[in-house]
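Inverse folding, one chain.
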């Protein structure tokens, strides 16, 4: 067990390994209490570095023997390592035998049991919990794996690559032998032994090769795998079409497991998934779940090239695979929809997520560059910065070289690096080299600062119109975010801009000395601290539409007032900025009321603008729902130096109630006219209508409860009982909870009774209660009671997240209590979790990242809770790193 003495690992200390492991033959005798592992490796000395002992990683293992070239050798243990000093000269074989105990593995890292089967999770450093190894991503080997287990209990035996042999053994046992022809790092190893069934599909790729796709689940879940399989087929087709990247194995498997720390894992040819991202039927999964499955299936599949064929040299390069693969899965989801509007909706949702999670991370104690410089526990760096900001960095590259140029860059990247373990620099270099004339190539050294400097840059824009010369001069200035560190240098910031006349006309965007063009949108590149751009042939004072499509992960301040924002909301041809204008109008009002500078009554200009959006015949329902949803409490808090979560909650709830009342007739119209009829289809058009109808229902319930009218809550209750799909059923239950309707209680009981045997739906049941708007401590009381509910278990990560995560992270007003009881609850749960699953505990600990921003009495109480956790004598290094940084 790692303890608080775990050392800091630094990027600058990277050194190549003194040995390579070229092949690995693993034999497992699977037993929940004592699994035996035989590990035969061929080892080569790395002659490029000085000779030294072989130091193999190992954690919670029992070693039974070590043979080098068939002879026993002496060895010693150091914390976390098996050290062998006297090895044969030259290359040799090494055989290690050890045991491990899967049923006691509550960390869910390494080999563990779940639902009566065996599963593995080796990223980032789980392989060392299975056997002794050079458990680092630059050591790539070819694996042959033999699994032996009871045939009755574990009829299905899977590992990476291709099945080469299987058969029966004595004593009711059987075996399967798998061979993966592609050299891979140990973190991509996987095995599964369980009683499972598969949905299968054969596909022929463009190049004519045949492949078998399988989605393995528990018996009884097969009817929930159609969408995952469709998503997998679509992913294979898309990667070949867009990037010419084919499926390279005869067989590609997805396996679903109910106990999993993360979303899913891209093990070569054997992806292991959290059930949440596999199982769906219209009755059990929402539209959001369906889209989540599509994107995670895509993400893991796309890793086959970006991560597996080309992997990371060291864990500091994690974004090499994660940022790039997030970008690819986002592009995939966008390419899956037909309309430009649906693409924009996806972009808005992605940016909303980035701002809600990554921006706060980048401003707080866990701020780190996309390519971090140091860590104690690498598992703590699977962050929104590495993933989502990393994805934005790749997106900016595509913006700077164009879509075709980016595809060319990808081709060069694979020509250069297929089969290698490389760095973020190698990737950026390949994209730039394939586009020698591009803005990326011109600015590459500066562009790479996105990998090196933390913090969200601030961009300030000021425009001046000159009527006599019909010119508009835009001044752009950048400043690094406060966490960028001393000496931060300017970023290379692509800013897509348009100019709009007061009547909504798109104006030309020609710069001085350019050949005239009819374009109404263009790219500016800000690569210095400050720059001016002069637009010509501008007939009227324009409203600038900057950072279209959110072309860079920055905070923009453009000084636009209400009138100008209304022009953008009503007329911008860029849907992202149209949505943004609406959010900014709302945000300005919330912030003014929170500060006490304005009453929390909404003005008619804002209400009318929202009504126009809701009633617009041109806009899609999905887009309307995004505009009409007020900025979240967390996003509001991020705009403030001192945060009073209760005040933010009160203001936002009051404004929601006003929008509910002022637009009552419009919500009724939306509810009545936009219902989706016919069979459930998880497509963006239907999903958008369901989202807007559900928003309308929740607004109508809020307004009705305030007026003492029972009709709308009655309708919502009816819908909980008889909705034909989970999106509508959950929407109706949410409307009752969100309006504090008396019918919420019987509706919850009904919901539970209907889905008592569906764990993923019971997760929703917990999380909806935990994230319901707080009033008089009712939600907190319910959460404490739910801890003792027979369905609750801290050991199952999905369930723990659905109650504790949903409350502590998703319910600011419930959690931040003036008596500090929310923080005490958090501390107790983190300590309980830490003793069984340190990765999960460390994630829950992140809730307190922004405690220093809190106003009193919250701040002092939060600090006390953090100190209590930090003082715990047996705290894991994972959680210690998080609370240590928070207390900083
Ligand atoms: N590479 C996976 C995510 C993942 C990372 C770590 C894990 O265990 C600590 C598990 C999964 C992905 O990006 O999907
Ligand atoms: Zn990933």
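Residues assigned per position:
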């Amino acid at each position: 067990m790692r303890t608080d003495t775990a050392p800091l690992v630094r990027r600058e200390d990277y050194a190549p390994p003194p040995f390579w492991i070229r092949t690995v033959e693993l034999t497992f005798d699977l037993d929940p209490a004592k699994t035996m592992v035989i590990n035969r490796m061929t080892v080569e000395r790395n002659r490029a570095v000085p000779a030294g002992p072989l130091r193999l990683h190992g954690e919670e293992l029992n070693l039974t023997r070590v043979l080098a070239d068939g002879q026993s050798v002496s060895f010693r243990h150091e914390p976390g390592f098996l050290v062998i000093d006297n090895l044969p000269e030259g290359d040799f074989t090494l055989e290690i035998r050890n045991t491990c105990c899967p049923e006691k593995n509550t960390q869910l890292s390494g080999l563990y049991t779940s639902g009566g089967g065996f599963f593995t999770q080796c990223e980032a450093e789980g392989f060392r919990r299975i056997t002794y190894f050079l458990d680092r991503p630059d050591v790539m080997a070819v694996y042959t794996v033999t699994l032996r287990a009871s045939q009755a209990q574990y009829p299905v035996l899977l590992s990476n690559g291709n099945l080469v042999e299987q058969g029966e053994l004595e004593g009711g046992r059987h075996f399967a032998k798998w061979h993966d022809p592609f050299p891979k790092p140990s973190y991509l190893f996987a095995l599964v032994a369980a009683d499972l069934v598969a949905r299968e599909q054969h596909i022929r790729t463009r190049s004519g090769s045949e492949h078998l796709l399988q989605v393995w689940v528990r018996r009884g879940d097969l009817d929930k795998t159609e969408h995952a399989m469709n998503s997998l087929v679509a992913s294979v087709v898309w990667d070949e079409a867009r990037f010419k990247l084919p499926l390279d194995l005869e067989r590609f498997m997805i396996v679903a497991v109910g106990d999993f720390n993360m979303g899913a894992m891209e093990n070569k040819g054997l992806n292991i998934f959290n059930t949440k991202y596999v199982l769906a039927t219209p009755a059990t999964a929402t539209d959001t779940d369906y889209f989540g499955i599509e994107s995670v299936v895509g993400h893991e599949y796309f890793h086959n090239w970006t991560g597996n064929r080309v992997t990371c040299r060291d864990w500091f390069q994690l974004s090499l695979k994660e940022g790039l693969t997030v970008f690819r899965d986002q592009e995939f989801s966008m390419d899956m929809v037909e309309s430009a509007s649906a693409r924009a909706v996806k972009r808005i949702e992605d940016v909303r997520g980035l701002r809600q999670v990554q921006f706060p991370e980048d401003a707080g104690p866990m701020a780190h560059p996309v390519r971090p410089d140091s860590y104690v526990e690498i598992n703590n760096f699977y962050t929104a910065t590495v993933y989502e900001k990393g994805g934005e960095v790749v997106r900016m590259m595509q913006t700077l070289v164009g879509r075709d140029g980016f595809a060319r860059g990808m081709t060069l990247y694979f020509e250069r690096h297929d089969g290698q373990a490389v760095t973020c620099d190698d990737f950026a270099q390949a994209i730039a080299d394939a586009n020698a004339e591009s803005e990326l190539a011109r600015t590459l050294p500066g562009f790479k600062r996105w990998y090196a400097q933390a913090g969200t840059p601030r961009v300030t824009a000021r425009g001046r119109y000159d009527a006599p010369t019909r010119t508009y001069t835009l001044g752009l200035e950048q400043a690094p975010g406060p966490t960028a560190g001393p000496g931060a240098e300017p970023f290379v910031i692509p800013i897509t801009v348009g100019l709009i006349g007061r009547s909504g006309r798109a104006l030309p965007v020609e710069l001085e000395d350019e050949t005239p063009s009819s374009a109404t949108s263009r790219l500016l590149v800000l690569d210095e601290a400050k720059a001016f751009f002069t637009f010509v042939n501008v007939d009227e004072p324009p409203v600038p539409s900057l950072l279209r499509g959110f072309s860079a992960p920055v905070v923009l301040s453009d000084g636009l007032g209400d009138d100008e924002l209304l022009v953008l909301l009503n007329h911008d041809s860029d849907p992202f900025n149209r949505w943004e204008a609406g959010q900014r109008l709302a945000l300005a009002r919330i912030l003014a009321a929170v500060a006490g500078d304005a009453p929390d009554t909404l003005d008619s200009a804002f209400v009318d603008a929202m009504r126009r959006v809701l009633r617009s015949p041109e806009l899609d329902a999905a887009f309307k729902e995004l505009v009409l949803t007020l900025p979240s409490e967390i996003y509001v808090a991020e705009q403030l130096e001192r945060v009073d979560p209760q005040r933010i909650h009160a203001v936002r709830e009051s404004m929601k109630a006003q929008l509910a009342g002022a637009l009552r007739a419009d919500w009724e119209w939306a509810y009545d006219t936009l219902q989706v009829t016919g069979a459930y289809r998880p497509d963006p058009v239907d999903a958008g209508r369901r989202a807007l109808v559900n928003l309308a229902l929740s607004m109508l319930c809020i307004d009705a409860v305030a007026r003492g009218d029972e009709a709308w809550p009655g309708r919502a209750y009816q819908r909980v009982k008889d909705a034909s799909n989970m999106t509508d059923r959950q929407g109706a239950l949410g409307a009752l909870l969100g309006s504090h309707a008396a019918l919420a209680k019987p509706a919850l009981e009904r919901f539970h009774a209907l889905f008592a045997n569906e764990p993923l739906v019971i997760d929703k049941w917990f999380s909806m209660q935990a994230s319901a708007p707080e009033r008089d401590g009712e939600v907190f009381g319910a959460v404490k009671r739910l801890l003792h509910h027979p369905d609750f278990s801290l050991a199952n990560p999905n369930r723990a997240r659905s109650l504790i995560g949903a409350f502590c992270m998703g319910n600011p007003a419930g959690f931040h209590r003036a008596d500090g009881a929310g923080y005490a609850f958090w501390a107790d749960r983190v300590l309980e979790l830490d003793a069984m699953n340190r990765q999960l505990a460390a994630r829950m600990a992140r809730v307190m990242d922004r405690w220093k921003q809190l106003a009193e009495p919250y701040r002092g109480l939060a600090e006390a809770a953090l100190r209590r956790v930090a003082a715990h004598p047996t705290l894991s290094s994972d959680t210690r790193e998080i609370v240590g940084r928070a207390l900083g």
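Residues 299, 303, 322, 325 surround zinc ion (ligand 2) (CB under 6 Å). The first strand starts at residue 9 and ends at 10.
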